[in-house]
Design a protein that fits this description.
- It is a single chain.
- The protein has about 150 residues and is an alpha+beta fold.
- It is built from five helices and four strands, in the order H-E-E-E-H-H-H-H-E.
- A four-stranded mixed β-sheet has the order 3-2-1-4, with helices on one face.
- It starts with a helix and ends with a strand.
- The structure holds zinc ion.
- Zinc ion binds next to helix 2.
Length: about 150
């Protein structure tokens, strides 16, 4: 029988093994660092935002657990080419998905492939691994120079 959980697992394993948009971004005009002390995940996110406020390019570097790497990889895919204005509602939807009641289905229409990370809500200690990249991107968007922390 087709098992959705297996598919989700496969997507996460795939993004961890071959992360998309990984590496330093030449021409980045915004960047930020993030750290999740609970797990030891570290990320550096690079952005290139044009004058119209469109995220032309995004990449990340870092090391951490499979969830943190897969989440960053999936996030960069989700926001590349999108206007900055799309970021806050997407972050909110993602945050809601990973902390929602187990019975609540993820909003796949809004979240797309990011919905594969819905399973982390069953493992509260991994939620911060999944949201680290989002906090870091938020710092990069704001132009903060401080290290974004999940605590
Ligand atoms: Zn982690």
């Amino acid at each position: 029988m087709f098992d959705l959980r297996d598919l989700y697992q496969q997507v996460i394993v795939d993004h961890n093994r071959s992360p998309r948009n990984f590496g330093r971004l030449a021409g980045a005009n915004r960047e930020a660092e993030g750290y999740n002390p609970l797990c030891g995940d570290r990320l550096h996110i690079y952005l290139n935002v044009d004058e119209a406020g469109i995220i032309r390019d995004v990449s990340f570097e870092g090391e951490g657990c499979a969830i943190s790497m897969a989440s960053a990889s999936l996030m960069t895919e989700a926001i590349k080419g999108k206007p900055l204005a799309d970021f806050p509602p997407l972050f909110e939807a993602f945050q809601h998905m990973v902390t929602a009641d187990l019975a609540e289905a993820p909003d796949e229409a809004h979240l797309g492939k990011l919905a594969v990370l819905a399973g982390v809500r069953e493992f509260p200690s991994r939620i911060k691994c999944a949201t680290l990249c989002w906090h870091t991107l938020k710092s990069a968007v704001k132009g903060d120079h401080e290290v974004a922390k999940t605590e």
